Amino acid sequence: xxxxxILRFPxxxxxxxxxxxxxxxxxxxxxxxxxxxxxxxxxxxxLAATQIDVHExxxxxxxxxxxxxxxxxxxxxxxxxSAETHLNEEGCLSVPGIYDGVExxxxxxxxxxxxxxxxxxxxxxxxxxxxxQHEMDHLMGKVFxxxxxxxxxxxxxxxxxxxxxxxxx
Length: 169
Ligand code: K1U
Ligand code: ZN
Prior knowledge:
Elements: H1 26-41, E1 46-48, E2 58-61, E3 71-81, E4 85-90, E5 100-105, E6 107-113, E7 119-125, H2 126-139, H3 150-168
Antiparallel strand pairs: 1-2, 2-3, 3-6, 4-5, 6-7
């Protein structure tokens, strides 16, 4: 297994639209293991393949307290959304240290393949529903700061670039 570098906003590669996974094979299973290790090490509750510069429709999630309920969604599709939405505080491993409110559906139903290539349907609410919507946005090349005002987004962009310049010194 390996820890993978996570792309940081405003890296343009975060805006790549991911392609469907053709087959769930050994390469995919190795990638899933690396993504889970990377997510747990970064103390995240989710990670999309886009964030590690792999542009295929794969996300890993674990919203459990015990960090032992990994959920792998390959080629996820939203098949139902609740009528109700709420503003939720979000963070992102690609935008470290920034938290802000994003309006999301309260509940979603998603169909996907699991790590063995079996079809599954996930009915999600609360933090899991928020996390699935956040990760599926990554697969469409969208980062949560794009929901914020241009003023906030530009401030975040400058802050991230400054932090990256300082880290490089
Ligand atoms: O996609 C990512 O970058 C992972 C991201 C997922 C996420 C967190 C919060 C709301 C929606 C999606 C994170 O894991 S950020 C770090 C984190 O663990 C966290 C931040 C805020 C609330 C809960 C967890
Ligand atoms: Zn994110």
